[in-house]
Amino acid sequence: MISPVLIVSFIVVYFLFLLFIGWYTSRNSTANSYFMGNKQSPWYLVAFGMIGDSLSGVTFISVPGTVGTNHFSYLQLVFGYFVGYFIISHVLLPIYYRLNLTSVYEYLLQRFGKVTQKTGSVFFIVSRLVGAAGRLFLAASVIQFFVFDQFTTVKVPFALSVSVILLLMLLYTYRGGIKTLVYTDTFQSLFLVLGVVLSIVAIISKMDISFGTAMSNIYTSDYSETFFFDFKKTNFVLKEFIGGVFIAVAMTGLDQNMMQKNLTCKSLKEAQKNIFWFSIVMMIVTFCFLSLGALLFQYYDYAGLTLPTNAETGKVITDKVFPNLALNHLGVFAGLVFIIGLTAATFSSADSVLTTLTTSAYIDILELEDNKKLSDLKKKQYRTAIHVGFAVLLWIIIIGFDLMNKTAIISTILMLAGYTYGPLLALFAAGLFTKLNFKDKWVPLACVMGPLVCYYVKESTLNYPTGYQIGNELILVNGIITFACLMLFRKKAAI
Prior knowledge:
By secondary structure, the chain is mostly helical. The protein is 73% helix and 0% strand. It has two domains: 405 residues, Sodium/glucose cotransporter (Up-down Bundle), CATH 1.20.1730.10; 77 residues, no CATH class. Helix 4 crosses helix 13 and helix 8 packs antiparallel against helix 16.
C-alpha cells in the first residue's frame, strides 16, 4: 500500500498547477471570456481537452474493469460515436455558428418559443447536475477509501474531502469560466492519457515481457472479442452502433456542457476540424483503455492474485479491479499514475459542468444576459453566485448519495439521467428536419411523458417471451416516443 501522505502530496502539486493556469487565464476576465473564451480558443486545445470532458473518473475505473465480462464490445458503441460526431460537425455546428449562439438551447427559443427553450435547459441542468454528482461521488469514494481512510492519526470525513474537491474546482473556474477550462481540460486530458499509457507500461514491466508480446497476448485472447451478433442481447452490434450514433449526437451535440467549448473556436471551419480530430483521438484513447483492461485481468492470472469480489454474491466487483491492482500490487509508480489519472479524469469532466450549468441557468432560465436594467458588475455578481450555488447543490447531492450508502443507487440515477436526452433529441430533430410547430406551453408535459413511457417500454421488454432487451438504442427509442408525445400538442398549420 502506497503512503497516503505521498498520494496527497502528489495531488496537491497537481492542483497547484491547475490553480496557476486558472489564475493566469482569468486575468482581465469578462463575460465574453467566461461564456465564449473571446472566440479565440485554439481548435487543437479544444479537441484534446474534450477527451477529459468525455471520459469521467467512472470511465477511467469502469471501462478497464468491464473487459473481463464484456471484452472489447465497448468499441461497437465508439464506432457509432464516430458517425455521430460527423453529424455534429456537418449539421449542428453550422447552425450554431450561423445563429451565433452562446447556449445551444437558444436555438429552441428561435424555433419554438421561450417555454421550449427553458424546457431544454432544465432537462440539461437536471441531467448534468445529477450525473456529475454521481460520477464525482464514485471517484471521490475511491480516493476516500484508498487515501484518506488510510490515515491512522487523523480521520478525514468524506464530507470534508468532497468539500475540498469542490472548493478547488471553484477556485480555478469561477472567474475565467470557459476560457480557463479550455486550458485546464487540456492539461487534465494529458494526465488522463498518461495515466492509461503509463499504467500499461507498468503492468508490462511487472510481467517482464516485451510490448509486442503483451499486445499479441491481448489480441489473441478472448478479451479482444469485439463484435456480438445475438440481436436479443444488449450488446448486439447493431444496437450498440445505432446507440452510439444517437448518444454522440444527443449527449455531445445537444449538450451545453460538451458544445460550449466548441463554440469558442475562431470559426466554424476550426470547430469542425476540432470535432474531426477529437473523434480520431477518442478512438485511440478508448482502444488504450480496453487494452489496459485486458492486461489487468492477464496480470491477475500471471501473479496468482484474487480478483476483488462481492462477499455475498461472489461476483467480481469490476470497479475495484483496476484500483486494487494499481494501489496494492504494482508499486509506488503505478499507484501514483493511477491516482493522477483518476484525478484528471474526475475533475476534467466535472469542472466544466459548473461553468456550463451556470451558462444555461444565466442565459436560458433567468435571461440575465439580455437584461438591460442590470449593470455589468451586477451581472458578474449574479454569474458568480449561480456558479457557487451549483457547487453547493453538487455537494448536497453527493453527500446524499453517501448517506444512502448504496453505490447501486448511483447506477440507477445515472441511468435515469440518460432519459433526459430523449426529449432534447426529439425537440432538435423536430426543429431541424420538420416544419412542425408545437403549443409552446405544453412542451414540458410532452417531454415528461416521453421518458416515462420509454421507461415503461424498457421494463416491459424484460418480460417479453422473445427475450429481447433494449440496450444503448434506448436513447433513440426515447426520442421517438417523446416526438410522438409532442405531436399531441402540434399546432394546426395556418390555412
